[in-house]
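User: Working on a comparison across species. This one is Pyridoxamine 5'-phosphate oxidase family protein from Pseudonocardia ailaonensis. Can you predict its structure so I can line it up against the others?
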Amino acid sequence: MQTELDGRYSDPTAAATPWDTARERLAAAPLYWVSTVRPDRRPHVTPLIAVWHAGALHFCTGAGERKARNLAGNPGCVVTTGTNALREGLDVVVEGTAQRVTDPARLQEVADAYVAKYGEEWHFDVSPDGTFAGDGGPALVYAVAPETAFAFAKGRYGQTRYSF
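Assistant: Here's the predicted structure for Pyridoxamine 5'-phosphate oxidase family protein from Pseudonocardia ailaonensis:
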């Protein structure tokens, strides 16, 4: 992995945000925004919850939902998290390819991670068909491992790029 501070968008005294710091922010964030591309090439953005597990962000969605239909045609996506505060905090953007997760053991690990992070309200059972079963019906699970990521430090502004 390569880490690089972009001086064009950073305070002269800023330092690159270490990947460990950005990854911790990804793991701890309560809410994320996933951006996908519709078949007609228009963007689609929606908030969701997710968990960091085994080097990737994992989220789930119903097969008929717009983001799942978009990912079926174009698995490239962007996942963003951070704060709406202007002068404090850290925003993180992950660009990657959404990979469907169907392995029962890995799905169980992700289901356990959801409960550990969000509580029993977000308990999922793993179905034999490689989906999560929950109150909303079957859900497809996706993993997005970073291909490129950015950290935007605020206060002392710094833009860090990570290439994997």
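For your comparison, note: The helical segments are 19-28, 66-73, 104-118.

User: Helpful, thanks.
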